[in-house]
Amino acid sequence: MKNLNIIRITREEDAQMHTLEAIMAATIMVVIILFAVQATSLTPLTSSTANAHIESQMYIIGQDMLTALDHSSNGQNSDLKNETINWNGEMYVWNGTDYQSDDNKNNSLEGPVVDLIKPILVDNGIAHNIEFTYSSISESENYTRYSEKLENYYIYNGDPSDNAVIVSRKVLLSESDVGSSYEAVTGIPDVDGNATALYNIIDVKLTLWRM
What is residue 41's predicted lDDT score, i.e. its pLDDT? Predict the structure, then answer.
């Protein structure tokens, strides 16, 4: 009789162990399924977060570049202003080794802008455009004067992607900064027609995106 009781207790313990193992296995399966579902639903968010991080980095890079170019000391013009003043009206495109004029293949862009862009953007595979946006005064059919914004490409590397970022810096040009042929060369006019010392305000727009 005693032996039968021992056998009964052993079988009950085995049954409890099997039940506990089954519960643990079911619990593990539920956890795995929940994890899989959550991981699937989080995938787009994870991608968006990565894209947002890259865009934030590129925005900071663009801001830092324009800030560095716009820095001036001892009453001198900044590199950014000098580039705007000395612009010949041509659009430059990266050809693999240099920024080449779209109109004159023998003309390559040189200077502080290129010296900054090459190691920071080109070498890191970041596509980029630089545009000059400026105001122009026109007259309607009833001789009403109005202002409109026009754009010219300084550097062009294609159409930006949907994840492109844009940073800009304003450059104020006075009549004393530019020569008499500046409008004919660049298309940028004297916005107030010699009424004041102001010539125009150029919005230098830098667009960055991943290739």
Answer: 40
